[in-house]
Amino acid sequence: MDVLLSGHIELSEAVPAPASRAGIPGASAHLPGRAFVTAVVPDEDLDREVTVSLHPERQRDIPFAVMRWFMEKVADEMARSRAERPFDSGT
């Protein structure tokens, strides 16, 4: 599950939603749990590198397909945040 908050993307475990949400139309059966991989895409300073942090205290075996999906989300966020900023020619 990913959470997008101004340049932050998290890969977290999915936890069951409370039973009280069962009657809500369109409500997800799962909610984001604690993040175990976080990426930060700095959109305020294009010279800063994108960083990916692994949280070893929340050790999980991440299937390659899931990690690839997560990194595609990071690449999409990089493209989106770079596209929103006007081109700076440095002059």
Structure in words:
The chain has 1 helix and 4 strands; from the N terminus they run ββββα. With 91 residues, the chain is of the alpha+beta class. It has one domain (2-15, 30-84). β1 and β2 form a beta hairpin. The radius of gyration is 16 Å and the shape is globular. The N and C termini lie far apart (41 Å). Residues 1-5 have low confidence and may be disordered.
Notable characteristics:
1 helix, alpha+beta, 91 residues
Oligomeric state, counting identical vs distinct chains: single chain
Kindly state the percentage of residues in helix. 10-25%
> Which radius of gyration do the C-alpha atoms yield?
16 Å
- In sequence order, what are the helices and strands, one letter per element? EEEEH
Unreliable runs: 1-5
State the end-to-end distance: 41 Å
Q: In what range is the share of β-strand residues?
A: 25-35%
User: What structural class is derived from the secondary structure elements?
Assistant: alpha+beta
DSSP summary: helix tally? 1
Mean pLDDT: 78
> Tell me, what's the shape?
globular
Biggest sheet statistics: 4 strands, antiparallel
Q: How many beta-strand runs?
A: 4
Q: In which order are the strands of the major sheet placed?
A: 1-2-3-4
